[in-house]
Amino acid sequence: MRGPLFYAKILLFGEYGIIKDSKGLAIPFNSYKGALKTAQNLTGEAKKSNENLKSFYNYLTNLDSSLVSFNLESFQEDISSGMYFDSSIPQGYGVGSSGALVASIYDKYANDKITVLENLTRDKLVKLKEIFSVMESFFHGKSSGLDPLNSYLSIPILINSKENIEATGIPSQKEGKGAVFLLDSEQVGETEPMVSIFMNKMKNEGFRKMLSEEFVTYTDACIEDFLKGNVTSLFGNVKKLSKVVLANFKPMIPNAFHKVWEKGIQTNDYYLKLCGSGGGGYILGFTEDFEKAKQSLKNYKLEIVYRF
């Protein structure tokens, strides 16, 4: 048995802000993917994944069935037969490893599921996001549901607010010099502690003010620029966003990258921002000249996501 493929995702803009109802823009990232598989003799990662699915099964048995219900009998049988999630998506890297798993379980076992083929009205998208939020909370303690939604639909998604999300198109890539890229911190990040730090910071009035007046403003402007293809304006706003993140989200940036982050702002070779909750994993980079950024970051592993 092999299930359909579910891809990684990249939240280009909106990390943390979407918890507080700012805009967000997520795109599928097809370099990494996962699928449900079954094997007779499980070892290593496959065995670990199978154990994880058992815990997830127990969690799903206690979910509010008025929101979503599953064919739990079939799910339990498949786990007993050696089912696991075979994935190339790195865990703790901010590219949606648990999201792809959640999407695959919903796809295979949800009763009356909303399918990708039907007319995806705003109400259906909001309902799917709500279902995925509850499902993915098993992994992170609190989830927006956006990662599984993106993985399940495999199309760019624009979040205008919690109750207003839509499928969107993004400008087609050009063979230009500019790029969005991933910078590998070579450290694993954990979502739950990072979200806890953020929630504690939200108790501070100054932090809340910065979030609504600066972080959300620049995030929303970046999304608008990106979708309209206003590249010059986009880089101006990404630079402002990068500065705000460095000044206010230091715990989410691995210590070894504080100076690297600062260097990008000072030289304009590249600008960095969080990819997911931060704390490790990938850092997202934006540059108007990828060759220059590559030279500037020659000691690090970079991977292109999108070309301008």
UniProtKB/TrEMBL annotation:
Keyword Oxidoreductase annotated: no
Molecular function terms, GO-annotated: ATP binding; kinase activity
Keyword Kinase: yes
Native source organism of the sequence: Tenacibaculum skagerrakense
InterPro entries named among the record's database cross-references: GHMP_kinase_C_sf, HddA/FKP, Ribosomal_Su5_D2-typ_SF, Ribsml_uS5_D2-typ_fold_subgr
Keywords, sorted A to Z: Kinase, Transferase
Name of protein: Mevalonate kinase
